[in-house]
Amino acid sequence: MKQSAATDPIFPRVMHVASCLTILALVPFAGCKREPSAVSALKATASGTALIESSGGHQVGATGTALKDPLVVQVNDEHGTAVAGAIVEFHGPLGVSFDPAAVLTDSSGQATTAVTLGSISGLYHLSAVTPAKSHSVTLDAVETALGYQQRLGAILADRYCTRCHDPESSAERVSNFDNLEVKPHTFSDGNTLNKMSDADLVAIIEHGGPALNRSALMPSYRNTLSAAEIRALIAYSRAVSDPPYQAAGTVYANK
Amino acid sequence: MQFLKKVFSSAWHTLFGDPVRAFGVVSLVLLLALAVTPTKEHFSQWHRYQRQYLSLIRDRGDAVSLRRRFQPGIHQIWLPDLGVVDRCTTCHLGLSEASLADEHRQPFRKHPVIPHALEGFGCVICHGGQGAATTVAEAHHSQRDGEMPILPTRYIEAGCGQCHQNALAGTPQLNLGRSMLTRYGCVHCHTITQPDGTKVAATDHPPSLVHIADKSSREWIYSWLKDPQAYAASTTMPNYKLSDTDASDISAYLISSSKSQAGDTVAPGVKTVAATDPAAGASLYGESFCSSCHAVQNAAGNLVGGDVGPELTRIGNKVKPEWLLAWLDNPRIYDATTPMPHYRFTSQQIATLAGYLQAKSDSDYGTNVHLSATTPQQIAHGRKLIVELGCAACHEIGGVQKPDNFAPELSTIGSKPLAQIVFLAGMDHSLPTYIAGKIRQPRAFGGSTKMPQFSLTNAQTDAVTTALLALTSRSRSMPDSLRIAEVVETNYQPAGHAGKLMTELACFSCHRIQGKGGDMAPDLTWEGSAVQRQWLSDFLKNPNTLRPSLIRRMPRFNLSDNDNKELTDYILAVYQSPVVDPDLAPSATNSPDLVEHGRQLFYSKYACQGCHIADTKTDKGYIGPTLTQVGSRLTPAWVCAWLRNPQALRPGTAQPNQNLNEEDAGALTAFLMSLKGSSAKGGKR
User: Is domain B582-681 in CATH 1.10.760.10, yes or no?
Assistant: First the structure.
């Protein structure tokens, strides 16, 4: 074998290509594993069979900043009772950092980590992993990072839009949603808004609901908001859309 | 030696033995020397990125147009006025390519949408880093000779803050940080001079301690100094980590230096009513809208209420009963500049409210504090500590001068050379890390650091760090034309008796008038044009609510008829808008047809009922003010002008500008003015 490797000029090239491919294949995973030392320093005293999300998923933050609330997951055993002392590791795409990246569950079976999002706006698919008896259990959580324009949209939406468009009501900020006969769509209502083009949304915001034969209770904002502000509002609604918004237009073969 | 000589001579002979050979060798060497630079360039980092970019775009649908816009070689944005020489676009090739929005690999990402053009500002103005460099290491991370690495994304708003001294809608973190610098007392000790030469002024109201003994006991002061947050979680007072002796000595000095002042306290015999009616107290507390400014921790541990005044969760532990009675009677005697209004409570109300507040106490708070009698040495030591710690930078303290420039100036902290910074072991050597670390745990940077421990959340720390990172030397060398000035609070002061009344009632704590005051309540700059006399007078006497969903409302002051008239007259006469002309208003008596036309417009064309209630039976709109009595509240001229352009009268108002024509505005005004409400029929309320 050794002999043939030395004599056959093809073989080293194959080896070379193979190793290159292996390295390339590993590259996407390189960003996922963060601070392996932190993981190895922890000693799990128990393990569970299920992971559930307690809180901290579906948050909307700004790019590069820490999310307001920590991500909390709970490890359960087969009977559904919380397991203390199980190890949970958190993984995310490149640019996301967890503090801590691995943690033992507390007495109530919960693992808490602070999440800082990366510098690219969009959806971040995070995962929490805990080793179970035979295999490891993974839980996925999705967070949204807003860029400058989308965050400006969020601020404008808060000032002009959400009082009607968001049914969420609090003592500090009473929603007008329930008072409206034709119910407005929330900004994250992807099932409705994803079907509408940017031009349609601009038309509704600029000229009011009747422009597209919709509720007259939606006033015209053409003289109140600038074109850039209206674009920011649309960018924000696209960013928080659920299901996620896929921009129509040229679709590239390699995507 | 012989051998070396032999080798050398044979080599010489081989290379330069005859002229032809020598010529050939020299030519070859010259050729190689000439090839060095192109070869180096070929293998340079930026060239590699350009090749990567070309292979990246090769397979895309719009490869042809992307390829056409691609220019090989070093790119440069040169803006001599701004001192910008940026070659970032040499590698960051997709910054302006809209079709690369789905490409997340750096350095080829499209730049997110921002209001500035790349060619107009370059990159380093916002991001920092070395624009002229052509390698990643030098451009992004260089720290040589005071060079700054690029700003991490989490502090990127600091880049905006270099030019934008005003509060931008799109930079919430920077705005929060700036407001914290003035609200948490940072600028009492640290001087911050803005590029235009103005000094950042504090907006907090640290209480004077000159008469502190009238208000609080030495035991409370001691407990407070030891841990301010244990008394009130929301206080901005930092923790100085004092030893028991130091806290005891400081409290001793504060008590001994305090001078009693007539009127600060009510003589024990005067408190006639022993108010122990909690229900009446709670309802008076609610009616007076104390919670608009003061917060109280509820059973769940959440703070409920505003943050203009101090938290009142344990107020009974803090203040002496005889002081509280006097304070509620007229707070301006103890503190002439307090944001608290003079409510003009009756003595019965004062007693009820005082009893209610006094009961807000924690029986466990400060129970184990037993301070021995003070000695002159302790008092002297207390004074020494007060001077050393700079207490008088914030608080007025008897016998201690307010120190000037107590702490290092921060006007260019965002450009502090890293060579001047002593980092802690294990700390990332970067300015943002240093600033955030210093804010988070100042005492970790050595025992001689006087800066106290603030209790800030991570988001607050990031915000303050962002605001400080915006204070760069670049922001000072920027041309003035690029600088957008901060909106500075005016020092407007209304005149005469009405002006005195407005100060006493602390109108400016909530309302903004002519550029001065708070933003909790409506801006009153043009209130005189807006409202009718009878309504204003009634409202001042007994404020009812205009917006059903608001929980922070105008409190009721027990104004005398004369004061009420003075205030009404003043507001109506002085706060007149030049653009609202009463003579041009639609006539007060409108034809029923016009009113009906206005009603049609209200309900169909403009669908105002979405936000307003004109008829309580049918309308449910909950956002704008209730309009059932608007005809007896507002003037027709104002309504008409408002409908046509609300933002012109009150910038930032949420009512959209519907661009009404004169005819529609007139009809709507006629309809609205016909809504007189029930109270108008029944005469005065």
Answer: yes
